[in-house]
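Researcher: Go.
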Amino acid sequence: MNTHITKSFLLALVCATAMLVGFSTMTSAQPSDQASVSATVLSALTVTRNADLDFKNVLPGFNKSVAADGTPTYGAGGSGETAAKFTIAGAASRAVTLNFTTPTNLSSGSDNLIISFANLGVYNTTDSPSGGTSFTPSSSTAATLSSSGNLYIYLGGQVQPTYGQATGTYTGTVTVSVTYSGS
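Model: Structure:
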């Protein structure tokens, strides 16, 4: 065996090892620091229907409105009209966006009854339509949850029966959805 090659190989191995030890020492000498990472997940938003919008009896040819507080424009053979009510619950004092899907007609079989909701909505951080903020549910509405994380929505409407409106019980659906917006 050639001792010159073996010595050269050993010398190269020793040099390579020394270089690796030197580099690892240089690497560990670099300054560093760490940062914590955290995230707080807010409580999920919920929407609960507490009451339905009910016009009770409607006269053909006479528009009938039910205000956000449940007050009708006239009583047609009965009382007990109600505005729809929804309760939103989520994280305290957070901004939300309210979105509504409202019908343009109520239906009874193949017959339709025009309905509108212009300026007949109110939201409030207290459980009352009195003193709340008016809105029209045809567009997105910005609101803020109360310090306890609640928001109450009251929704009235107006039906517009024709003079020849077919007799029947007309129904439809209003959908409320809510999302957090902002911080």
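Model: The longest helix spans residues 3-28.
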